[in-house]
# Entry
Amino acid sequence: MSLSFHIEKAGGRARCGRLVTPHGEIETPVFMPVGTLASVKGVPQDTLEELGAQIILGNTYHLYLRPGVETVRRLGGLHGFMAWRRAILTDSGGFQVFSLNELRKVTEEGVTFRSHLDGSAHFFSPESAMEAQIGLGADIIMAFDECTEYPADRDRMRASMELTARWAARSKKYFEAHKSEVPWKQGSGVRGQRTGTSIQSRAPGIQCPVDGRSIDDVPRNADPIVTDPWPLTPGPCSTQSLFGIVQGGMDRELRKESAERTIEIGFPGYAIGGLSVGEPRALTREIVESTLEHLPAGTPRYLMGVGTPEEIVEYASLGVDMMDCVLPTRAARHGLLFTSEGKVSIKQARYAQDQGPLDPNCGCRVCQRYSRAYLRHLYASNEVLAQVLNTIHNLSFYLDTMRRVRHSISLGEVRFSF
Ligand SMILES: [Zn+2]
# Structure
């Protein structure tokens, strides 16, 4: 089993369901925190688990440059390397490479680009992007695509869409031939995690002063991990899943054709790429809505790189199952916090004496413990803790928003807003 998707309830166009991956189940619609360099900046993995993140993202371009795919592969893939046993999705590297502008050159074969770190030259093709993503070992990986710039004329959008279609076929061909090379197959587990209790070796014969039992019989560290549903190692038959990406710029007809051509190649899930590249929000919505009509109902639909809390709710209502965005984590590092009462710019002097919680309706550990005044002080003092706490709250707000969206759909509600 590599991937299965079950729709449990639909309300209007929205649906909630379960995406089963080799590293656990994901409740959909889902928001996926972005962990560019095998790290969701400022947030330890155990805190991500506590927040209820069931899947996170890694960026192939960044991990390819540093620490390098071979290093990650030898250390058990991303799961082993970063000690994260839940699901991971990696992008193909295409979006980042195309963001480099002057540093890249596109041919039929692939893209030559220069590292933003040291200017060194590199080459990504559909085949090498698959090789990198297989080495990184995420549960879901993405076909190599060209992200069409905005604005672009129709000829340019068509040529770009057709290149993406040809690259999708090459991505799939390479993936099918090499998917057994995923690092899970090579015996690398995830460090520091157990699925059962253990009796650790220690000096024999010491008795418990209370009940007289030898303490060698008492399991140590009987912690909550015992009941954790996420498997330490995936089943022997499981492997990665490759998703296709629909492009076509801001043209509805080209998007339809791209969807049809991608579906013809055949993938277990489909993404809508090339949006949030500078176009007006109303246009993003129009393209999302029209493209969704052409995607199969029974497979997961992933909208890449969006959006604000209001937008992720709206896209879920249109029938999107998976979303990711750097917004909650990046904004948090700049002191911009999303709350049930609207956006809060914590740097403002008006919060300097504010003893209230950041968001009175938020149950996260930050809102339960700290005042706005303290968060404002940390930010103004440039304390590292400011970034940590702000990010934890913003992620909690996003994940909680999606939790409530799923609840609304499960109750059969057609329209919802938070
Ligand atoms: Zn909070």
Remarks:
- The chain has 14 helices and 16 strands.
